[in-house]
Amino acid sequence: MSAPSSIVIIGSGLAGWTTVREFRKLDKTTPIVMFTTDNGDFYAKPSLSNALSDQRSPAQLVTTPAAKMAETQNVTLHAHTPVRSIDTAAKTVTTDAGVTPYSRLVLATGAQQIKLPLQGNAVAEVLSVNSLADFAVFHERLLGAAADAPKKHVLIMGAGLIGCEFANDLAATGHTVRVVDLSPRPLAALLPADASEQLQAALSGLGVQWHFGTSVQSIDREGAALQVTLANGDKVQADLVLSAVGLRADTALAHAAGITCERGVLADELLQTNVVDVYSVGDGTAYASAQGRTLPYVMPIMQAARTLAGVLAGQPKPLVFPLMPVGIKTPIYPLVVALPAPGTPGAWVLAEEGVWQFKDGEVQRGFVLSGAQTKRRAEQSQLTQA
Ligand SMILES: Cc1cc2nc3c(=O)[nH]c(=O)nc-3n(C[C@H](O)[C@H](O)[C@H](O)COP(=O)(O)OP(=O)(O)OC[C@H]3O[C@@H](n4cnc5c(N)ncnc54)[C@H](O)[C@@H]3O)c2cc1C
């Protein structure tokens, strides 16, 4: 299936394809074989949570089709071909199509949506969106084939980044939105309390209804509607339930192969795992360069993929993450967030309207910008010592 000197990459998400693109800038000829459970199309995953407002269909979100990516990047792509196991002693991967040798192996297997243990006869109908294929199912269930389909009642589980972005997108396009979360406010883990309250107020202004301090207990189909029972006893109806309760690094394949995994596949500053010639990058990775944290965002992936490409091309340089602010796509109340590392001493201080700084004495360790202040990302980044 491939020459023994091939680099084998598992995963065709941003991490897999960016590693390929960066590597091809340094090395045009080493054979690359990519296996993916997806169809291999290249798309920007962040666009999934504002595609409705942008009036883009799943097909329109593909930026480069798989065949074009494979051709331009000189990659042998095996789409819809999950890797079942890795033999690190023999240096092979096994799929349903056979056994493929590798010289170097890159794990870019991403993360999986966390599935909460729920009761009821309609649990299988809960949707989540962590890929273009997931979004296609969501889009179809939301809008069907008719352009003038009636607007739906959507219940979102989770008021984190993805839950809030979908709440904004759905409410802005005329759907009725309820959000359920155990925490007392949206984005409670990321934002200072007053920023979170302002986000809540802005989304409420779009019609979003909140159920805080509780969780979904059971989901049952009753005729055309889903009956959702919350832990506090409330019962609400919905046409669709979208789970956005968080992602967990997908480590099953690596773990079964004896590769060390903690919160993700453990990768050192050159993206190497504990097993020789096996590397990891993307949402499935716990980075030594980030004190063993996973960093499930675009900017860290771009940075890590560039480092990994250099390592694979024989130009190793240790991965150092710069400050990487994340833009939150809630257009009704846009936010940019640069969090301090967990455990950093200090507290949030409101510096001026729409600017919060995380201060450790006089030293700024993070910031949150909202509304028109989001354009001050570069200035605030310069003031921040990570
Ligand atoms: C709705 C949404 C909005 C987001 N918005 C933002 C944003 O605004 N800003 C930001 O910075 N980040 C955002 N993110 C996060 C960002 O999109 C992700 O960090 C990034 O896309 C992850 O890329 P990845 O390649 O690591 O993982 P994935 O995209 O999950 O790719 C993993 C790949 O591995 C393949 N795979 C897994 N197991 C196997 C196997 N055994 N065999 C073969 N293939 C396998 C899968 O098929 C897939 O191709 C968002 C995420 C979501 C879901």
Set out the fold topology.
Blueprint (H helix, E strand, L loop, with lengths): L6 E4 L3 H13 L5 E4 L6 E2 L18 E3 L1 H7 L2 E4 L6 E3 L4 E4 L2 E4 L2 E4 L3 E3 L18 H12 L9 E5 L3 H12 L3 E6 L11 H13 L3 E4 L3 E7 L2 E6 L4 E4 L1 E4 L3 E3 L2 H5 L8 E3 L10 E3 L4 E3 L10 H15 L13 E3 L6 E4 L8 E6 L2 E6 L2 E8 L6 H7 L3
Parallel strand pairs: 1-2, 1-9, 2-5, 9-20, 11-12, 11-17, 12-13, 19-21
Antiparallel strand pairs: 3-4, 6-7, 7-8, 10-18, 14-15, 15-16, 22-23, 23-26, 24-25, 25-26
The chain binds flavin-adenine dinucleotide.
Approximate strand percentage: 25-35%
Strand order of the largest sheet: 5-2-1-9-20
Q: What structural category arises from helix and sheet content? A: alpha/beta
Q: Report the sheet with the most strands, covering strand number, pairing sense and barrel closure.
A: 5 strands, parallel
Tell me the CATH architecture of the largest domain: 3-Layer(bba) Sandwich
Per CATH, the class of the largest domain reads: Alpha Beta
User: What is the total domain count?
Assistant: 3
Features:
single chain, 386 residues, alpha/beta, FAD/NAD(P)-binding domain, Enolase-like, domain 1, 3 domains, five-stranded antiparallel β-sheet, 22% helix, globular, binds flavin-adenine dinucleotide
